[in-house]
Design a protein that fits this description.
The protein is an alpha+beta fold. It has helices spanning 2-23, 33-46, 54-83; strands at 93-94, 96-99, 104-121, 126-151, 155-182, 187-214, 220-231, 236-241, 252-262. It starts with a helix and ends with a strand.
């Protein structure tokens, strides 16, 4: 009976794929393979034995968190080394600036248990990240892009980013952040812009700002960060800003502009 149900739901998913493919050009809520495979897995997992997953979930979560901390340490260490070799074009001292192209970027992903994650920059401004987890799994993916800035005066600065989201969350944990990293002191300050667990983003544009204190003559990386995490004790969780939808559009995060201006 169970295998018969799985066959029927597989056929239903296939029909959904065919239908969405045929109308995707006019449908504002397009699906991708990640979506349909998550629907199928959620159905299958409801019939599986979900007992004794608590310990496995705890272990996988600890592994994933350790991976993220190790990645961040390595990434910031590399960033500090980059700051020592900056070209003169990146060391302009000012109290304001606007950049339409990022100076650098990084990305990482990982996880443990049943699931998958991926991350990459298609170009200097387009980030693709995604994570999917099942039955005690914990997976993560993130990407960070930055510009270099050296303030000529100490004070409070307004840091602004303009970016666009194309993707979907199904019980996932998606977030965007603004960060300032002082390469002279090795300190990182982060503020959350957006957090979401269940939504479809169809080229949604955000123009958001946060305030940071900057020290004069220190070298800063002004950073935008996207993070797509997925973890679940039972069932399926997904945060997808990377897969291709059935109408051919690719999910992604596009960082259009970063700007900064001294307030006082």
């Amino acid at each position: 009976m169970k295998s018969t149900c799985k066959i029927l739901i597989s056929l239903l998913v296939l029909l959904t794929v065919v239908f969405v493919s045929s109308v995707g050009a006019t449908n504002n809520d397009n699906f991708s393979v990640w979506d349909t495979s998550s629907f199928l897995a959620a159905f299958e997992n409801k019939e599986d034995n979900l007992k004794n997953l608590e310990e496995e979930y705890k272990i996988n979560s600890q592994i994933a968190e350790k991976q993220k901390l190790e990645y961040q340490f390595k990434e910031l260490t590399n960033l500090t080394e980059q700051a020592k070799k900056l070209d003169n074009e990146f060391v302009i001292q000012s109290t304001s600036g606007t950049w339409w192209r990022l100076h650098g970027n990084s990305h990482g992903h990982g996880g443990s248990g049943i699931g998958y994650s991926e991350s990459q920059w298609d170009n200097m401004n387009t980030l693709r990240i995604g994570s999917r987890a099942e039955l005690g799994g914990n997976f993560w993916a993130n990407g960070t892009g930055w510009v270099w800035f050296t303030p000529s005066q100490s004070g409070m600065y307004d840091l602004n980013v303009l970016y666009t989201l194309k993707g979907r969350n199904i019980a996932g944990d998606f977030a965007t952040y603004l960060e300032v990293y002082n390469s002279d002191t090795g300190t990182l300050h982060q503020q959350t812009l957006l957090r979401n667990s269940n939504s479809y983003f169809d080229y949604e544009q955000y123009n958001q700002s946060k305030t940071f204190y900057l020290q004069a003559n220190n070298s800063y990386a002004l950073r935008f960060k996207g993070e797509a995490n997925a973890s679940t004790l039972g069932g399926v969780a997904m945060s997808d800003f990377t897969s291709r939808e059935f109408d051919g559009q690719r999910r992604h995060i596009y960082v259009e502009r970063i700007s900064i201006n001294k307030l006082y």
